[in-house]
Amino acid sequence: MAPAGRPATTGAAVADAAVADRGLVACPDCDLLQRLPLVPLRQTARCARCRAPLWRHKPDSLERTLALALAAAILLLIANVVPMLGLSVAGREAFTTVVGGVVAMWREGSQVVAMLVLFAAVIAPAVEIACLLLVVLAVRRPPAPHWVATLLHGYEFVREWSMIEIMLLGVLVALIKIAELATVIPGLALFVLGSLVFLLAAMAATFDPRLAWERIEWAAGSDQGGGARALR
Hints:
Elements: H1 11-20, E1 24-26, E2 33-35, E3 44-46, E4 53-56, H2 61-79, E5 85-89, E6 92-96, H3 98-107, H4 111-139, H5 148-159, H6 164-178, E7 183-186, H7 188-206, H8 209-214, H9 217-220, H10 225-229
Antiparallel strand pairs: 1-2, 3-4, 5-6, 5-7
């Protein structure tokens, strides 16, 4: 029993205190629970046991991510409006956009491929950019609403399905095969999509999810499990 005048400490209370401590992180590789030290700018905290990276202190993460996300949104809009490719055969030219190519594949009977291209090259990148924009705007003035946690989970999921680079690789292979049959005219969207690939990579590298998790409303109150779960 606890001494007189001192409240008994239960296992649940100890667990709640550990969860409430946002300095405690679990290594994503070996599951070692440890306290995150103060990390200087551009330095990385590593696991004490397996040396796996735990967190990197990124300077001005929210501001840089917001700028990159806005630029990516503009490029994605341009890429889906202007022509991507054109073909010239016997003096006749025809141009198509990304969505136009999806419609053409659908009409030719390749519905499954058309839906995959539409999702991986148009929908997934758009949702990825939109999620990150909403997250960054919401957490700039903490505490952020609890629905930001759903957007963070959605961002991590949809980022794995954003495959603009795979579509560009397929387009290049197709261009090589038809180069002898027709004159290929690269459109503006082709170069925009190439730039967008690097911009999305820079956006993901600049974003600090831990900073966003710590600013969520329920992560700053009594239920603070989100900050620890974000690193798992």
